[in-house]
Design brief:
The structure is a single chain. The chain is of the alpha+beta class and about 600 residues long. The protein folds into four domains: about 230 residues, GAF domain (Beta-Lactamase, 2-Layer Sandwich); about 100 residues, 2-Layer Sandwich (Beta-Lactamase); about 70 residues, Signal transduction histidine kinase, dimerisation/phosphotransfer (DHp) domain (Helix Hairpins); about 140 residues, Histidine kinase-like ATPase, C-terminal domain (Heat Shock Protein 90). It has 16 helices and 18 strands. It has a six-stranded antiparallel beta sheet, with helices on both faces.
Length: about 600
């Protein structure tokens, strides 16, 4: 009768019914067995001997213990599988194997789970369990050994005398084994492992043991499946969380890198999302005159958005329509800084979309004021160069025409032609110099130069020109000789140009002074005149190519441009101090190094 009840419970479980309900049936089975046992004992006491009664009582007690253990395991498995005490699979199997071995009195109990082609021992209880687990004891599925046979066939197997069983695999770590029983773990039609129990006695198992342990194995299989699934879900969730954290860190790093790139740009960048400013870089704030304070970012966004919308109010409809249709718009306009100063801006607006729908724009704003000024300067340079060349060419053509008409005045016309060609030669040379300076192809040929002698040579050569206008041209040079590493030819060109300009712009009976002195680690050369002077508005443009304060003066208009480039190539500066009617002072400042200092104590202008 006990076997019939066990079979009923086993079939109930394997059909996938609830584990809690299975536990109730096991408890009821225990109560029925107890009642039937009592009734049977009364009858037996009347008919059988005391020895037979004792044997039956022993067997009945064993079944009761087995069923009580099965009920306890079923309760624990139910709790674990229902998630009230969700442990990992390994922890659960350790608890079950220990419980089965102790309650059933087995020599060894172990649980194997299939991984690939092998059944691997995952939990064990017995005298050598730690050693078996440490060496990751395994048996090939379908191969040698009781467990190998069971995991391969999916059927339980009893070996009542292992020494006479060809399937048995003798494990040196379990020398006391005399009988063995293995029960498969089945989930549907799939075998996922086996429960293995071993005894030191022969004939230790019977069909009832198979039924009880099979019911227990079916419970464990369900629990293993649920816990494995839960563990897989948990591992997947942990992996997803790890990936999210890693990706979040990557995005944060990419965002930081992007911010560094955008903040290092010289062009201003504005990102708008649904017509609201969401980001501006530091260059735009500097361009418009705002301080980029992270604590007041939203306020800055609103102010910049208002400023741009107001400045570009006439262009907005055109920009929006063009970006909607073509994805990008480029143009130029005039913008105002926060302080009211205006500048020319080149603007590029690019469409930002999601699912083919426009959600925002990225606007790049570039200050092109200097580019515009440079373009204007180049245009003016070309126009002036063309004019400067056209005038002497026209003069040459006129003189050639007059030579044919007036052959008697040939010498006079030839002299004019020579003057014109000399002027054109100087103009071309100056143009080439300006071009070389722009391209950076000018190379200085420095040598040790006596600066006072260089100045005296220039003054001596230009004194006859000054005498023609009765201009007093004098020098004031410190007595201590100064030697410097200079390109003497180029520096002669600078000084000659400054002195000639002073002569040209100084009226008759005027005065010109060329002064040299050193102070600290610097050398100063000043050309001071009592000429007409220069207004501040002209001083700012004086070093531009072809610029002249007065168009009725001789020269190419390139002299001061070349002077500035030569001085800067020497690592120096050239400055102007002037007022209309008060004359002008041009100062060349050069740095002295340890080899340039005068041999005696440096003289300074007091």
């Amino acid at each position: 009768m006990s076997v019939i009840l066990i079979v009923f419970v086993q079939q109930y479980i394997t059909k996938g019914n609830n584990l809690n309900t299975a536990t109730i049936y096991i408890v009821l089975a225990l109560q029925l067995i107890n009642m039937m046992g009592l009734a049977y004992l009364i009858l037996k006491r009347q008919r059988d001997t005391d020895a037979a009664l004792a044997t039956y009582t022993q067997n009945l007690t064993r079944r009761v213990i087995q069923l009580e253990t099965a009920a306890e395991v079923a309760r624990d498995v139910s709790i674990l599988a229902d998630g009230e005490l969700m442990l990992n699979v390994d922890t659960m199997l350790v608890r079950i194997t220990e419980l089965v071995r102790q309650r059933f009195g087995f020599y060894h109990a172990g649980v194997f789970l299939i991984e690939g082609d092998y059944a691997i021992l995952k939990a064990a209880s017995g005298p050598t369990s730690e050693a078996l687990l440490a060496q990751q004891h395994r048996l090939k599925v379908g191969g040698k050994g009781i467990v190998g046979f069971v995991t391969g066939s999916g059927e339980p197997r009893i070996s009542l005398n292992v020494m006479a069983d060809d399937v048995y695999f003798k494990n040196p770590d379990l020398p006391g084994t005399r009988s063995e029983l293995a029960i498969p773990f089945r989930v549907g039609n799939k075998v996922i492992g086996a429960l293995d129990v071993q005894s030191i006695e022969e004939n230790a198992f019977d069909d009832a043991d198979v039924l009880v342990l099979q019911a227990l194995a079916d419970l464990l299989a369900i629990a293993i499946q649920k816990l494995t699934l839960h563990q897989s879900v948990q591992d997947y969730a942990n992996e997803l969380e790890k990936r999210v954290i890693e990706r979040t860190k990557e995005l944060a790093a990419e965002r930081a890198q992007l911010r560094v790139v955008l903040d290092s740009m010289s062009d201003g960048v504005v990102y708008t999302y649904q017509n609201q400013v969401r980001y501006v870089n530091r260059a735009l704030c500097d361009m418009l005159g705002f301080e980029l304070d992270l604590a007041e970012t939203s306020d800055i966004f609103l102010r910049i958005q208002h400023l741009i919308n107001y400045e570009m109010r006439d262009l907005q409809p055109k920009i929006h329509e063009h970006v909607e249709q073509y994805g990008i718009w480029r143009g130029e306009t005039t913008l105002h800084r926060r302080d009211g100063a205006q500048f020319e801006a080149g603007i590029t607006v690019t469409r930002v979309e999601r699912d083919l729908e426009m959600i925002g724009t990225v606007t790049v704003i570039r200050d092109i004021s200097q580019e515009k000024a440079l373009q204007a300067q180049k245009a003016r340079f070309v126009a002036n160069a063309s004019h400067e060349l056209r005038t002497p060419i026209t003069n040459l053509k006129t003189r050639l025409y007059l030579i044919k008409r007036q052959p008697g005045r040939y010498a006079e016309h030839l002299k004019i032609i020579e003057q014109v060609t000399n002027h054109m030669e100087r103009l071309v040379e100056d143009l080439l110099d300006v071009s070389r300076f722009d391209r950076g192809t000018i190379r200085l040929e420095k040598s040790k130069t006596h600066v006072q002698e260089l100045i005296e040579q220039v003054v001596m050569l230009q004194r006859p020109e000054a005498d023609k206008k009765n201009i007093t041209l004098t020098t004031d040079l410190q007595e201590t000789p100064v030697y410097m590493m200079l390109d003497s030819a180029r520096m002669n060109q600078v000084l000659t140009n400054l002195v000639i300009n002073a002569i040209n712009y100084t009226p008759h009976d005027g005065h010109i002074l060329v002064r040299l002195y050193t102070q600290d680690d610097q050398l100063f050369i000043e050309v001071i005149d009592t000429g007409v002077g220069i207004s501040q508005e002209h001083i700012d443009n004086l070093f531009l190519p072809f610029f002249r304060v007065s168009q009725d003066r001789n020269g190419t208009g390139l002299g001061l441009t070349i002077c500035k480039n030569i001085v800067e190539l020497h690592g120096g500066t050239i400055q102007i101090e002037s007022e209309p009617g008060q004359g002008s002072k041009f100062t060349v400042c050069l740095m002295l190094d340890s080899n340039d200092h005068p041999s005696a104590e440096t003289s300074s202008l007091q």
